[in-house]
């Protein structure tokens, strides 16, 4: 029997986790030897196997059955790579507690290209949605794979945008790769399984369970060279990913937010602790070009510092310019209103105060701008449409 | 000897005339009552017996048979005591018969012979008048309510003995029928003429003022639009943002009741037995705020002989549902049909009853279980929790609500609010609403409707003409928002009201946009 089948067999056993496989390997020497272990050897105190587990190992040794199950899985488009497999991601190998095998639907990220993880809150704000989209679109443009957890909120938004921008994205799941969780991301799941990738260390059919999600975070950070946290509360799951990334020697970047926003507190704390700060997408791309070895920036001295300030100001100016470029199609009043709009939802009375327009005119303009797709109505408030291409580019 | 006395039986807001036939003949002494009687009416026998004795009359030892005709109608209530007592007295010859054909008797008797109030006087007197009855004798406490009906003489009595004195005094021909005895002794009080319009104008409106509401200008504006055109309104917002406060102030800006409306409402309250003793007429628009544990029957009206439910008591007024999401979904859906038909038909054992239910629905709810969605910094609810919560209100019900508005959390400590100066008061709002009302009165002068919200499809075509720009706006909105045909009509009616408020003859883009804004404000919550 091939080595991969031994690995497949082991990873399919309930109660046999990564640790157990490592112990068994140490004891037996190779995967094939584990298959051949006698009941007496399995009972040896060194292995510390519980009775049901050792019995399961013995009773499941049915070569034809393992082969049949493996081939059936292949037919559903899911592949399996064990630790020793040549296609097993290199980046995964050098972490603490690497998965003994991974199941993949779709393609694995290119091992020779740097990849970046974008993670964040499930209940994200409009600001988080916008920034996740912008970052992912920029990364897709730069042909950098985007790794994430396909969760609701930031994860899903970033992956959706990466695919939309023509890039590659890979979702690391906390359940079997044949299961779409959360159901709300069904669309993204389908797209990922065709033009991206889905990875899990759990065998197909394993249902999503809360304990499995923090564990998959270590794979997200391991597969990427940089982890970006877009929005996170204190004690959020995204911070676990950031911690894992630091343990694994990956760089962490965080998107700053307002001090009073609970959704940004986790990020702001990361920055305080020394994480990279994302002041703009352009700045971030410059930062990472060092990793990519394309351009090397000299260590900034005092003069450089002021130059950098000018840079940020320029990019802010550019943003306004771009908005104005699209504003060519807008009337004067519409431009006034657009300048008062924000990525934080604005109430009618706030907009009225800011623009000085009378209520009737304001309603007309708001309705027109939302029909044109520049702004969105959120309840009784209006917000700039984070998904509008003309505003993003 | 045989005689019959006229009285009335309520069925819903309708009233049937009933003949109380009494026959006294020789035979074994007995007192029998027949005619499909409810238990209250059967008990009348004991009350009448004792009341007669305590009023100085005696029940002769004869065979008394009482029949309430037509015997096919179920009789209930306590208003038959007086006609039965009078019938017995006339049949046994103790008092003379006087104008029995054209006089209607109503009243409950106490054991000491005093007359007590009964419910449903207004509809009974009204139908008596339409059946050609000239005179109604009723308990003195009900006299002002009875006198609301023109063209009929209403006499009030405090005791059974007074009624008997009146009958005896007027036995002779040529006697004045004003209840005045020759000696100048008044046995029955005649009702003073009642000027409904004057009463409505002097009626005090006791409602808190909108001046107390700080900020929330959008919602106040929406409330004004709702009150001007009688549109339904839903407020969504975090706890403590002033939704209930605004709803409680709605009565202060509602247009006054017209005399016809006041009579409609009074009839309902009379049937429900909810008229206050000092107020014969309901003078201001009702404001009803049921608790969210209310049952379907209480809302729609129910009982063996269904009485008006909460939605009928809110007729021509405001029905405020606070914490709308906490109501039973099935209870809320009871309102779906009345919201369209403006009336509710209740079918029970005793028959089918129709009560009017033309109310303005004002509702308030939180957007999610914790109350703070969509403020992601405060809200910890998952999207499925939010949608589960908000979906307790069914889509078809929402489709009938014209105005949806989000209440924003108000930061009173923020100096911005202190600097704003006085906010719009109820009086300011009312004067604008009244101007809009005038336009509507003028528009619908030859029609049965009073408010823009009541317009039919045909009226909409006639009064909600759109220019080409407006047509373009609504058709693109129709596509991008996926509106239903009903909501299309509702938006037009709403924009008509907004145009009326702005004192414009034509609906402009601004009016239409504002109407669309109110319509789509709930979209973020329901994805509608």
Tell me briefly what this model is.
The complex is a heterodimer of chains A (393) and B (528). By secondary structure, chain A is α/β, with parallel strands linked by helices. Chain A has helices at residues 3-11, 18-28, 31-36, 39-42, 51-59, 63-75, 90-93, 126-141, 154-164, 186-195, 212-223, 237-247, 262-272, 281-292, 302-327, 332-340, 348-355, 359-372, 389-392; strands at 78-82, 101-106, 116-119, 146-148, 169-172, 197-200, 226-229, 251-254, 276-277, 346-347, 375-378, 381-384.
Explain how this protein is built.
The complex is a heterodimer of chains A (393) and B (528). In chain A, 51% of the residues lie in helices and 12% in strands. Chain A is of the alpha/beta class and 393 residues long. Chain A folds into 3 domains: 1-66; 116-292, Rossmann fold; 325-392, Arc Repressor Mutant, subunit A. In chain A, the strands form 2 sheets. In chain A, strands 1-2-6-5-4-3-7-8-9 form a 9-stranded mixed sheet, sandwiched between helices. Chain A has a 3-stranded antiparallel sheet with strand order 10-12-11. In chain A, helix 10 links the parallel strand 5 (169-172) and strand 6. Chain A starts with a helix and ends with a helix. Residues 295-308 of chain A have low confidence and may be disordered. With 528 residues, chain B is α/β, with parallel strands linked by helices. Chain B has 2 domains: 2-193, Ribosomal Protein S5, domain 2; 200-451, P-loop containing nucleotide triphosphate hydrolases (Rossmann fold, 3-Layer(aba) Sandwich). Chain B has 22 helices and 19 strands. In chain B, the strands form 6 sheets. Chain B has a 5-stranded parallel sheet with strand order 12-15-18-11-19. A 4-stranded mixed sheet of chain B has the order 1-2-4-3. In chain B, strands 5-8-9-10 form a 4-stranded mixed sheet, sandwiched between helices. In chain B, a hairpin with a 2-residue loop joins strand 1 and strand 2 (14-25). In chain B, helix 1 crosses helix 2, helix 7 (217-229) packs across helix 20 (485-501) and helix 20 packs across helix 21 (509-520). Chain B starts with a strand and ends with a helix. Residues 171-185 of chain B have low confidence and may be disordered. The interface between A and B is medium-sized, with 29 and 38 residues.
